[in-house]
Amino acid sequence: MERDRRPGPASGRGSGTITSDGCPVEIYAALPPHGEADIIHDAVPAGAAVLELGCGTGRIADPLAALGHRVVGVDDSRDMLAHLRAAEPVHSSIEDLRLGERFDGVILASTMVNTFDPAQRARFLRTAAHHLTPGGILVLQRHAPGWAEAAAPTTWHDGPVELELRDVVRHGGGLVSATLVHTLAGMVEEQDFTGQVLDDEELTSVLRDAGLVFDRVLTPDRRWVTARLAT
Fold it and tell me: Is the pTM value of this prediction over 0.90?
């Protein structure tokens, strides 16, 4: 039976432990870093205290801690948090998180800002803004502007993990649904997701609604950007 490809929350099925939003824990733990910690390290002050929202298995958080930062990693999956080695784990949803401290840097990576749900995106950004010190820096990873038009079925390898993007459906207005298949040593997991691609103007608008201002672009592909609290 053909699956429903209307926009909806992420979900997964297949081998191993799968989080509520369809992420395969054991496979995520095998994915290698790709310099994300270096991008963030260069964007925040030396020795900054950093909060990562949705840290997963620590692919960014642990290398960032190795660069001299105190890193607090937040995730709503205890199975993900069990893989952290250097970062301090906090079990919470992003939306509900309200810690009693502020951070020099806050990270919202893994294209979570591209959630198809505008209300969820607003809650993510309000949590990020709440935890920033005055002058603190929010580091965001988004789908590259134009990804909605460029997304197409393809396969590639990320370290030992084979990945396949398939069943791509464009809904218009930068909204895309697809299935991402993860394969590792006989384990296979399929994750259905919908992403809302945000160009600079759209991102500026949603940041403003959360009390933030677009700051600068960090990478040539324009996927990594920073924001600050509005003054």
Answer: yes
Q: Provide φ and ψ at 122, rounded to 5°.
A: -60, -40
**For the segment 110-166, what is each residue's pLDDT rounded down to a tens digit?**
999 999 999 999 999 999 999 999 999 999 999 999 999 999 999 999 999 999 999
d(CA 152, CA 3): 18
Q: What is the dihedral of CA 58, 83, 79, 96, to 10 degrees?
A: -40
Neighbouring residues of 41: CB distance < 8 A, sequence distance ≥ 6 = 64, 67, 69
30 contact partners, CB below 8 Å, separation of at least 6: 159, 160, 161, 184
Q: Would you tell me the crossing angle of helices 118-130 and 200-209 to the nearest 10 degrees?
A: 60
Report phi then psi at 206, rounded to 5: -70, -30
pLDDT digits (tens, 9 = 90+) for 31-47: 999 999 999 999 999 99
What tens digit of pLDDT does each residue of 157-186 get?
999 999 999 999 999 999 999 999 999 999
